[in-house]
Write a structure and sequence with these properties.
Layout: E1 13-19, H1 27-30, H2 32-45, E2 49-55, E3 59-65, H3 73-87, H4 98-102, E4 114-117, H5 121-137, H6 152-162
Antiparallel strand pairs: 1-3, 1-4, 2-3
Helix pairs in contact: 2-3
């Protein structure tokens, strides 16, 4: 098995991309309430802050900040994916392979995810902008504000209250 090297910065802020195994699926938005519940459940036991998020039909991007004494984002992703998968009825578009079957895995998620540690405020802003623009980039909406599965609305409302 490949030994992935992950940055173990304690209390870091991270950008993530997480994909479904079937990149033509709409599973994440079709079952958005279950995905939200999976996040809530894991955050109760393993806290983290969701600084920005956009959930597309087949993938999601988000930025998390971990507690000052923690670096284990991999555990959190494993738990979120597992909870979502266990709560979800079997889907016609799941991708089953011999490898997945031998490990008793469902064919919902890609096994890995992509992460990037946020370096500074400029990096943070660039990734937040990328997250919120992603539904437009993929042609789901014309305007960022039209995508309902995004923290843009939360961030916009927060900044308007402050101003």
């Amino acid at each position: 098995m490949t030994n992935y090297r992950r940055d173990r910065t304690i209390g870091g802020t991270w950008f993530f991309t997480v994909n479904l195994a079937n990149r033509k699926s709409d599973l994440l938005v079709r079952h958005i309430d279950l995905l939200r519940e999976s996040f809530r459940h894991v955050r109760q036991k393993h806290p983290f802050t969701i600084d920005a998020i956009a959930v597309m039909p087949e993938h999601l991007h988000c930025i998390w900040t971990l507690p000052d004494d923690d670096h284990d984002f991999s555990r959190r992703w494993r738990l979120i994916k597992t909870r979502f998968s266990h709560q979800l009825p079997y889907q016609d578009d799941e991708l089953f392979t011999q490898s997945r079957e031998s490990k008793a895995e469902r064919g919902i998620w890609q096994r890995r995810f992509w992460e990037h540690r946020i370096r500074d405020e400029a990096d943070f802003k660039a990734h937040v902008d990328y997250i919120h623009f992603n539904p437009v980039k993929h042609g789901w909406v014309i305007s960022e504000a039209d995508w309902p599965y995004s923290s843009l609305h939360r961030n916009y409302n927060k900044s308007r209250r402050m101003g």
